[in-house]
Amino acid sequence: MEVTLLGTGAPAGLPRPDCPCAACATALGPDARAATALLVDGALLLDLTPGAAFAAARAGHSLGGVRQVLLSHPHDGPPVEVPAGLPQPVRVPDGRELTLLTGHRVRAVAMDAGGTGYAVTGPDGRRLLYLPPGGAPAGLETATAESYDMVLADAVGRPDALARLRAVGSVGPTTDVLAVHLDHDVPPGGELRRRLAAAGARAVPDGTTLVVGAYEDVPDVPRRTLVLGGARSGKSVEAERRLESFPDVLYVATGGTRGGDTEWAARVAAHRERRPGSWRTSETTDLVPVLAADGPPVLIDCLSLWLTDVMDEVGAWDDAEWAGGGEKALRERVRELTEAVRCARRTVVAVSNEVGSGIVPATASGRRYRDELGRLNAAFASECEQVLLLVAGQAVVLRG
């Protein structure tokens, strides 16, 4: 089964008409995207958009062989003109299945928002799932027998849709996840590719033709990632974003509850509200067993608080205790942690503060903490496939 993406953008396209934002201003060349529409084996058109016939011609195809046109979502604005020779577009009721004369079978999938998804099985048995913008499948409660070969979805706007599909096995390690309905809420180019790769997805330019079931371009999700940044740099949001398309994430909070500290409680509450409801939380600084265990992805927030706790335990704030064995004990704890990261088999995303670029602390204990955090970050980063530095909410790739 062959799929040509006549467009990969949001319904309004990218750039949006008359939008002055930075993302639209830079959406040029291959980053410019028409509204999403798919041509399957030249016989099935999923979503009819303005200029579909010209888009097909530019991609080296014709719409002359299309036998069925299906709409996945309401189209705002003036009605789209149906090119001569095309059947009238229809929307299939949820759960209904169509069988085309070409041998394609199409099943309408219910969404949790407006729109209809379509599961298409080709004559060769390959399976793809196409979801409308802003939608995730509804009613997925039991594991499926096999994963789709290709999924085309709003991976940026609704990453939880991928999490739901992964939870029931509809998206597996070899599923080619294509991001479509791309809008101006994520900068184009390298930033978009980086974010999608973290979710095991990718984007392709308009006009790209893909063979369903060809896995050579499916990105590998980095197994170990360290996200660094200063205060309010966006490092926690970035770390959470990297795992929001996966179900059953274990969120390890190393800061504790700090009873009586209302400001800290407000920070913790804000983090909890931001996280998907399917994630589990564990408040602990005992990270080695967490990293050694098999299981779903783990997000550690953050290493700087882990270091504070360990320095408390080894007496690092007292010069005599530090010289009498505290320094050696801390080095051993850091070695154990980095060894656990090296051997970890689960996906790990860790957050840490970058404090070495600011004012030199006025106290010896403050300088000691700054130095030890720098050493910890360097040791942890050396075991990670990807290291990011967040500055003003922007991710700078240091490794990977």
How is the topology of this model organized?
Layout: E1 2-7, H1 22-25, E2 37-40, E3 44-46, H2 52-58, E4 68-70, E5 97-99, E6 105-110, E7 116-121, E8 127-130, E9 150-153, H3 159-167, E10 176-179, H4 190-198, E11 201-202, E12 209-211, E13 224-229, H5 235-241, E14 250-253, H6 262-274, E15 280-283, H7 287-292, E16 298-301, H8 303-313, H9 319-343, E17 348-353, H10 364-381, E18 386-391, E19 394-399
Parallel strand pairs: 3-4, 8-9, 9-10, 10-11, 13-17, 13-18, 14-15, 14-16, 16-17
Antiparallel strand pairs: 1-2, 1-12, 2-3, 5-6, 6-7, 7-8, 18-19
Keyphrases for this structure?
400 residues, alpha/beta, seven-stranded mixed β-sheet, 19 strands, elongated
Description:
The chain is an alpha/beta fold. The protein is built from 10 helices and 19 strands. The strands form 3 sheets. It has a 7-stranded mixed beta sheet. It is elongated. The chain starts with a strand and ends with a strand.
